[in-house]
Amino acid sequence: MILPDMLKTLTDNARQFQERLTEWQAAMAKGQDEAMEQARKWQTSALQQQQEVNSQIVARMEGASETMKAQWQQMQKVWEDQFAAMQKQGEEMRAKAMSAGGGSGSNAFADWSETYAAQMVAFTQKMQGEAANAIATATEARGKKK
Fold it and tell me: Using an 8 Å Cβ cutoff, are 113 and 139 in contact?
């Protein structure tokens, strides 16, 4: 193979690589946009569900005794305090990850963020399991009353 042919082949390969790279970047950007849209939809749905739960709680509390209301408010305060502490700890961990991982643009930080989100989802599922148990207990108690 003579030098001009080698240079032409190298040029063609570089051009093809650049075209593929552009396609890959576009596909990755589209995937990120879709993931962000899904996250926004999930957040909107979660807010709607929370509003529904809050209205159900208000409706239940209207008919409850003062003792029951006081107990519920005490539990609510404890849960809110625990959530605030978890949120603060998460922010501290995020700051450490950013400083150790080279900033928010690094893959290490992205990996950390995904892992953190997965752990929060697992924790939320545990809390949902606890709520399901509470609902089952309430249903059994109402069934025994009849």
Answer: no
